[in-house]
Specification:
By secondary structure, the chain is mainly beta. Helices cover 1% and strands 43% of the residues. Strand 22 (260-265) and strand 23 (273-277) form a beta hairpin.
Length: 343
Amino acid sequence: MANLRANNIVGVGSTDAGVVFDGVTKIKTQNYFYLQTGNTDARFPNFATNAVSPNSARGVFGGGSTPTIVNTIEYITIATTGNATDFGDLTTARRLAGSCASSTRGLFGGAYNPYSASIEYITISSTGNALSFGNLTQSRGILSSCSNSIRGLFGGGYVTPAAVNTIDYVTIASTGNAQDFGDLFTGSYATSACASPTRGVLGNGRVPSVTNTLEYITIASTGNSKDFGDLTQARSGSAACSSSTRGLFGGGESPGAQNTIDYLTISTTGNAVDFGDLTQARFYLASCSSIIRGVFGGGMTPTKVNTIDYVTITSTSNATDFGDLTEIKNYLAACSNGHGGLG
């Protein structure tokens, strides 16, 4: 006979108690019916989040300029500290691309000078070279990207002679060309973006003057962006990351290198609030996150650096040293399999 006991159901912040059947349950019945044996928590896994555990979530940094344009990919385990490790190579050298991810795949799309429309993908939990995914709706670079567990969005960018206001989307689990999502307020580039499972928030950049404007979209829909609020200061070339509730925007140029980190609550609208400072003022850096930590890597001061630093997203404080990238570079892109857009 099976043993009955009370047990906490595993989940994020869960303290619900339920009944678990331990051991083998044998049932005699005249009906054509079979009750499975085993623990109920094994048959009903936690679907509260699509993100990889914060303890094992990986951050991946791809492309950039050293000063030559590179195709290198490197990775870190976000919950630890230490130097980045080689992952593989992109299909082509690219800089100022956009990058987003699901819990499985990371995407890199677009590039600047030479401009590109190509999108490629990696499997984040492995190592190896990227594969072709498809194309954006137009060639452009200096764009930003965010995602939930299903869709990846690429917004804004630049292609001679002007900035563009295009927003594209793709289904991350597939391959194929991007489709039109809608438009930003106006053409902008050198922006940064982050997401919750519902919303994407894109901000700052150049239009062509530096701006502190924030705008948002609902990822599961299509349509033009809406006003969110403002960052604490106008700047371009910053980097953004998020938990499922809070977005961080760090660094940037205004006009010199900045170390400011701002935060906002993604589900609301309103102006950003000061969070703290990076360990080093820099711009054209890249950021990735788990639902606990935000990590900022690379950039320029204006001298190129390989600095990686991190913050705890739920707090407010200055960043702490994490380690170093494998290369000194700027104009890189980053994503993770544990970010806030995944839940």
